[in-house]
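User:
I study polymers; will you set down one protein's sequence and backbone structure tokens?

Assistant:
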Amino acid sequence: MLEVGSGKADITAFVKGVGMMGYGMFDQKVEDVETPLSCRAFVFNDTETGKKIVFANAEMCFITISVKQGVIKRLNELIPDTGFDFDNVMLTAQHTHNAAGGYSHYAFFNFSIPGFVPEVYDQIVNGIADSIIEANNNLKPATLKFGKGYFAPEDKVAFNRSMKAYNANPDVEKLKDEDWHLALDREMSLLRVDGETGEAIGSINWFGVHTTSIGKQNKRIHYDNKGCASADFEKDQKDSNPDFNAIFAQAPCGDVMPNFIWEPKRDKMRGIDEDDFKSAAYNGSLQFNKAKEIFENAAAAERMANTALDYGLMNVDFSNVSAGDEFIPDGVQVSNGDAATGPACLGVAFFKGTVDGKGIGEPAASFATLLARTNKSKEQFKSLFSSRENCNRVKHKYKTHGKKDILIETGERKVLGNGNINALGPLGAIDPTLAVMKQHYRNGGLSDKPWTPQVLPLQFFIIGSLAIVGIPAEVSVVAGRRLKKTIEEVLKERGVHEVILSPYANCYSGYITTYEEYQHQLYEAGHTVFGQWTHAAYSTKLKYMAREMLKPESERNFDEATQPDIFSEEDLAKRSFSSVG
């Protein structure tokens, strides 16, 4: 028998003066709260096998491995006999860009905050854990129903912001720029959860659109479009189901935005209204209405006959993954061993931003490109006179990252090839974020671990014929389609008919773009940190995991030796920040 419980808890983490996470803007500091933020959780319990899984979704930018570590630790302290661990708890985020940052243990994500903020971290960890505990306490016999729905072309809900890269994929119909609303997946998938007596417990849906209706000028905490949708649905159900919880989770949306009107005075795309809060509410209402439609249609559908639970998790060091030959695009010639990822690097394209969240402008971008290319030439020349090991390292780095103009090597802790951050000289006076970086470096806080995670968790949940795959990154539309197809082709052997990719899960490592998209070096490619073979590497590892999930649990071979970095309190103290506001 299947039992399901749902829970919800506050994670607003209002700490005045702390930077918001998402746009990376140093001057976007929290001043007030427009909406509270919540984490919603569903616990699924198979009473026959004793297996449990947790799917939680938090109104925050992304999950960090440090948050997951903190949540698991707290669950083991408060409810130690429930068996919740890294492999059967999936934490996801809906990706609002208007909530407090400072909850990552990795340095790079905190430079604009500016630093690790213990108060924010603790409130988020405690809130997520509380939502899971509440869900576990609310377990009751339940039924599941699965449904889908499609947004009509005229629904102004989502738009592709990187059409040039999208059209570079050989497996898509080439679209004109004005057809950007069609260059994405307009499908919403929904899992309806009902009690045995017919009362609705809640729902989880997946649809891919960035939670960026609210721009970088905002300084009030807000759950953005997906939070509006959740609030609308729960309000709609309040009279008949007061404890109803509605998760509006992300699907692959790396190149998908909710904005479609150019606003010259802010130099960005916006939503339907000049008031971003109204744009968020409008977009959220579209998502809510579609979810309610699917939810109501699912009421008359057949319940999922098979709800047996299964799960698996494997940590992968993505700084060195060889891609399987089957995932190398036709016509691309590579030498033996060259189709592999490398240590994390950020390109100039990342710092330039997107049409709905611009970064550095001209002439700064051109100057940064010149510096990156000059450093590349200098490094390649110097390597000719260095050790064979260093020469091979340099060759591999630039083959791995291809057309990316490398500005920051977060994996190797370098800026423009230099590990001495003090050598940035006057740049710190120009950009306050670089000034923070220099301060953390002088404090000894940037010395011995990568600035962004390289060991990442991949996770599979299987509920009968449904698979939910946790991805620790943002995935472009086409990259997501290909990953989904790869997994489906394997898992169909065990009766799985639906595969859902759930990004921003358990950790965060930037983007996954296809090889073809990567060559255009738009924002998403500049933030594809492991290089041009990132998508091929994910495909290789996810296929391996899917094949292992076909085996009996006792025969599966998931790498347990590879583990993420652990940061000590001493490490974090060297780059922590406390608001005085």
In short: The chain has a mean pLDDT of 97. Residues 325-452 form one domain.
